[in-house]
Design brief:
Elements: H1 10-20, E1 28-31, H2 41-56, E2 60-65, H3 75-87, E3 97-98, H4 103-115, E4 119-122, H5 126-133, H6 150-161, E5 171-174, E6 189-193, E7 207-209, H7 211-221, E8 226-230, H8 237-246, E9 254-258, E10 262-263, H9 270-278, H10 293-299, H11 303-313, E11 321-322, H12 324-338, E12 341-342, E13 344-345, E14 348-353, E15 362-367, E16 377-382, E17 385-389, E18 409-412, E19 417-425, E20 431-439, E21 456-457, E22 460-461, E23 466-473, E24 497-505, E25 517-520, E26 524-528, E27 538-544
Parallel strand pairs: 1-2, 2-3, 8-9, 10-11, 12-25, 14-20, 18-21, 23-27
Antiparallel strand pairs: 4-5, 5-6, 6-7, 13-24, 14-17, 15-16, 17-22, 18-19, 19-20, 23-24, 25-26, 26-27
The chain binds adenosine-5'-triphosphate (ATP) and magnesium ion (MG).
Adenosine-5'-triphosphate (ATP) binds near residues 32, 34, 46, 260 and 270.
Length: about 550
């Protein structure tokens, strides 16, 4: 991956040069989402890149909704996008923009082009336009309407605006070059007639500008200096440049392309996610198994981990995929030092300390994060009846099993040594209780050195523990088989969600708020689900496990 990166700073090099040549007094960038869906991890790359550049150069970062295509746009998406951009910490200043704010100006620029003889109204049908366009190997041919007079074009365009023609019956086209080697330059359509209700402008317009005409104008009007977009727009750059030049902007913006971020084994396509939502396979766009930003937020990913990840991936001109495990690696790195390490038992069995006084409760001091002493300590109750993990006890252990089994002694984390002398099973033979004795001499922190044990297990005090639901996640698609089946459908992983309905967590977690996150010792990182958790029924999501196979490159 590293070799393919032209330079982490290839965009910065362009900007440095522009500044040195006096072409750019203040750097202005923008993120221009179309409000037709939720943002995903790929968009985060664009947001952080554009915001990061503006910040680095002491410039300005604009957020602009590209709402030139009203049929697909919804206000719901505007809200979620605002939330996601803010969550990532990309400060867009006091206001955000809409492409539709500029519809009047765009209309005026179209008129200007007509007056310059650079645009004409064309009556060809969509099929004819396609036919006349030519192919990659053959030039196109001129429309019979190409030589209409300026006056005729002006009055026809005005009539288009006034609703005098049916939808799709005419278009306004830029007059460039039907023989151009670049198909985008063969008299592209810049306005179409479509009676669509717009979320912002209502029914004011029945003509709408095309993206390739609208976007450069939006950039120029906002004073954007560097219009950074993804590679699929590379072939559109000549048209971008043509528009800003013919509209005679004084300080025209410059389009720069970079490669999209692709993560392995994830789904970002709106079409697929929509289907998963509609079929009830996931519980919304923010289902923790998805990679929309709202899903990652709900799952417990942090903006800082996403940022570090993006910095490490870098900016490049060549397409490549990044391992999802790399994102998790930086997440773990972030959570490791910043989250308290709590005790939670996800598959509980009881442990009874037969020689511990019946009604005694002892409060033990536990360090919140051994690697970060600034995080302080907390008190945790300890008593005669505890819960431990089912797999921390075995009746007949295999070799090298150092946890509890009849006759063996282990440390209860932060507490005492306990030695197992008996256990009880239910009718089906499942262990339900384990009986131990403890040695009061062995209290953690007492400096006891008499003997050592090989196993340490965690626990919670049964009477004070809080019952909770815990959800474990795996990738929504089956990584072994690949994301898509041959017919294009998704290869779903049947084990992507495991619900552990009856877990016990230490009492300090009782007041945890939605999205608060923690390490659960030995089990991973978890957060409080923001949708389903309530005071009476705590729900935790596993963010990531503690370990991964991912090896960061030096
Ligand atoms: P999708 O179809 O995946 O939802 P899109 O390109 O249709 O993405 P837009 O709202 O048009 O979504 O995108 C807004 C900005 O985000 C664009 O500048 C686009 O280039 C950028 N972007 C989209 N996907 C990625 C990605 N995977 N990596 C980097 N930037 C991206
Ligand atoms: Mg798009």
């Amino acid at each position: 991956m590293m070799e393919e990166t032209i330079s982490k700073n290839f965009i910065e090099q362009i900007i440095d040069k522009d500044i040195a040549e006096g072409k750019c007094a203040k750097v202005v960038t923008r993120f221009p989402p179309e409000p037709n869906g939720y943002l995903h991890i790929g968009h985060a790359k664009s947001i952080l890149l554009n915001y990061g550049l503006a910040k680095k150069y002491n410039g300005k970062f604009n957020l602009r909704f590209d709402d030139t295509n009203p049929t697909k746009e919804k206000t719901e998406f505007v809200h979620s996008i605002l939330e996601d951009v803010e969550w990532l910490g990309a400060d867009y200043g006091d206001e955000y923009f809409y492409a539709s704010d500029y519809f009047d100006q765009m209309y005026e620029y179209a008129v200007k082009l007509i007056k310059k003889g650079k645009a004409y109204v064309c009556d060809l049908t969509p099929e004819e336009i396609r036919e006349y366009r030519g192919t990659l190997t053959e030039p196109g041919k001129n429309s019979p309407y190409r030589e209409r007079s300026v006056e005729e074009n002006l009055s026809l365009f005005e009539a288009m605006k006034n609703g005098e023609f049916p939808d799709g019956s005419k278009v306004l086209r830029a007059k460039i070059d039907m023989a151009s080697g670049n198909i985008n330059m063969r008299d592209p359509i810049i306005y179409r007639i479509a009676r669509m209700h717009h979320h912002n402008t209502g029914d004011k317009w029945c003509i709408y500008p095309m993206y390739d005409f609208a976007h450069p104008i939006e950039d120029a009007l906002e004073g954007v200096t560097h219009s950074i977009c993804t590679l699929e727009f590379e072939d559109h750059r000549p048209l971008y440049d043509w528009v800003v030049q013919e509209c005679e902007f004084e300080n025209p913006p410059k389009q720069i392309e970079f490669a999209k971020l692709y993560l392995t084994n994830v789904i970002t396509g709106k079409r697929y996610i929509k289907k998963l939502v509609e079929e009830g396979i996931v519980d919304g766009w923010d289902d923790p198994r998805l990679v929309s930003l709202s899903a990652l937020k709900r799952r417990g990913f942090t903006p800082s981990a996403i940022k570090t990840f993006m910095e490490q991936v870098g900016v490049s001109k060549s397409q490549s995929s990044v391992d999802y495990a790399m994102l998790e690696h930086f997440l773990r790195d972030d959570l490791k030092m910043t989250r308290p390490r709590m005790y939670a038992v996800t598959d509980p069995i009881k442990l009874i300390i037969t020689n511990y006084p019946e009604d005694q409760v002892e409060y033990l001091t536990v360090t919140n994060n051994m690697e970060n002493p600034d995080m302080g300590t907390r008190q945790m109750p300890f008593s005669r009846e505890l819960y431990i993990e089912r797999d921390d006890f075995m009746i007949e252990p295999p070799k090298k099993y150092f946890r509890l089994y009849p006759g063996n002694e282990v440390r209860l984390m932060n507490a005492y040594f306990v030695k197992c002398h008996d256990y009880k099973t239910d009718e089906a033979g499942n262990v339900i209780e384990v009986y131990c004795t403890y040695d009061p001499e062995t209290k953690s922190g007492s400096g006891f050195t008499g003997r050592k044990v090989k196993g340490t297990i965690h626990w919670v005090s049964a009477a004070q523990a809080v019952e909770a639901e815990v959800r474990l996640y795996e990738n929504i698609v089956d990584e072994e088989k690949g994301v898509y089946n041959e017919d294009g459908s998704l290869n779903l992983n049947p084990n992507s969600l495991t619900v552990l309905p009856r877990c016990y967590v230490e009492p300090a977690l009782k007041d945890a708020k939605p999205l608060d996150s923690f390490q659960f010792v030995r089990n991973g990182y978890f957060n409080v689900d923001s949708k389903d958790s309530t005071e009476d029924h705590l729900v935790f999501n596993r963010i990531v496990s503690l370990k991964s196979s991912y090896k960061p490159k030096k």
